[in-house]
Each structure stands twice: as structure tokens, then as C-alpha cells.
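Z., the sequence and structure:
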Amino acid sequence: MKLLLVEDEQSLRESILTYFSAEGNICEVACDYRAAIEKINLYSYDCILLDLSLPGGEGMEILRALKKMNKNDGVLIISARHSLDDKVDGLNLGADDYLVKPFHLSELQARVTAIVRRKSFDGNNTIVFNEISIDTLAMKVKVNTNSLNLTKKEFDLLVYFIANQRKVVTKNAIAEHLWGDEIDLSDDFDFIYTHIKNLRKKLIEAGCQDYIKSMYGVGYKFDNV
């Protein structure tokens, strides 16, 4: 998953960042209102973990800005505010969930995973695309009955392709989703080709059709046509 953590409390921010990064997620951070606005203007995320009280502005205003852009990023509000009015306001503005501090990191992860699952895969833990079956919790992939041994990046790439099936995705979008905003420092995306080539080879060798279509000069499309 590609996540944005908007949190000004350093100790909590570092705990969440360490926890999600250890699970292999791309987790970017914004410590204040201005940094968060800049991030959501430039990038898209599977889920944004949004604190409400921030230096320089209100988390609710970030949520309003996100919805005004018509972006589909999931939003989980994490706040010490526990009043019913705050919860109702956040959910009415378009947040997908609201978690009151303090919380266990395992519960935070479960709620983030549920949001991403609802938004991308209709709430299912198992993703099926023709002969491909993906268990997102166990991180296992099968083509028919054949199990695939994918690297973490190849697994994330396959899930990203299927979540965006039949859409053209650019090399830049793939790079940002799998490597985060650090990829901005690179002007060469040839390494993406290597990951896609390896994923395609493993799928085909397991008996899968070749669904990864190269769109010359643009990127790729995952399609069965």
C-alpha cells in the first residue's frame, strides 16, 4: 500500500511509520498543513492517515481540499478529538473511517487495510482476475492451481495493475506508487521495465495469458482484450 501519514506528533509519527514500513508499505509523511496540501496536490495514495490538529491549519480543511480535487484516496482520520460532532463532521466530509487516539497499531493497520480493500476490491481479501487469484492477506498468488513465487515489488505491481485494470498507467505513476516520492530524484524509469518483464515471465510460465500490454511512449495497460 502507498500511504500518507499527516501527523505532527513526532513519537506517534515515527511509531506508525516504522510499523507500516516494516510491513513493506510505502509510507510518506507530512508534519504540518502546508506539507500535507503539497503532497495531496502532487501524488495519490491508497489511504491518507489524517490528524485534525496540525501546525498551520486544520485536518478538516485538508479533507475538504482533497474532495474538491475529486480524488479517490482513502482517508482515515486519527485524532484525539472524541466528540460525536467531530466524528460526524469528518465522516460527512468524506472520510472513510475515524479512529480516536490512543489506539493500537494493529487496529490502525486493520482499519487502513479495510479501507483499501473496500475502495479497490469491493471489500474482498481475495482478488480474482480470470485465471489469476491473489490472497491479499497471505500475499500469495496463483495462476489456476499453480502458485507463483513473486518478490514484494512484483506482488505490489500485480495488485496495482489489477486495481487499475483496463486503464493506461504511466511509468511515472507506477514508480510513485511502488517507490513513493523519493522516485522524483530519478530521471530514469528503466528499472520498472525489469520488474514488469520478470512479473510477465513468471505469470506466463505459470500458464497465464499475457495481460500486460505496453503502450508505446506512455506506459502499460493490464487488459484481457
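The longest strand covers residues 74-79. The chain has a mean pLDDT of 91.

Let me know what you think.
H.
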